[in-house]
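Entry for the shared binder. Reason: the reviewer on the internal report wants the predicted structure included alongside the sequence.
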Amino acid sequence: MRKLRTIEMDRLTVSEFKDAEKMPLVVVLDDVRSMYNVGSVFRTGDAFRIEAVCLCGISATPPSTEIHKTALGAEDSVEWRYYRSASEAVGDLRAAGYEVYAVEQVVGSTKLHHFAPEAGRRYAVVLGNEVKGVHQEVVDLCDGCLEIPQFGTKHSMNVSVTAGIIIYHFARGLMLSD
C-alpha cells in the first residue's frame, strides 16, 4: 500500500466547499474554553461538510492563531456564527426547524447507537464546556439528549473527541451508504 499524496485526494477548494451541499447538521459549542478544541471541531466539521458551528458564550471565535493551529484553515470553510449564549442559539435553531440534541449524560438520555438520524430532517447538537458540560438550562431547551456509552473509569471524553464521534454518527446515517 502507498499513502496518497494530497493532490491525489481531490479535495474541494474553500469556494467549492461553500457551494457544496452540506450534511444537515449544526454543532453548537456551549462555553468551550479551549481554542484548540474549537479548532478541532471546525476541522472535523469540514471533513464531514456540516452546515455550521455556533460558538457560544466564552467559546473563542476566528480569527485566532490557536483555533487555526488545529483547524488548519477549516475555520475559513465552515460557516460559523457567535451567540452570547447557547440558549439563544438553540432557540434560533429550533425556530428554524432543527431538532436539537444536547450531548450529555442525563436521566432518560438516548444512547448514541439507538439514535438514527433520518433523511429530510435538520439537526443540531450541543456540546458543552470541558468541565461542566452543557448548561442545564440549555439541556432543558433541547428536544432530547444523546449519550455516548462509556465503559472505563472516567465519566467524560474530550469535547473534540466527542464531536468527532457524534459528527461521524450523523454522517454515517445521512451521507454514507453501504
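Summary line for the report: The mean pLDDT is 97.
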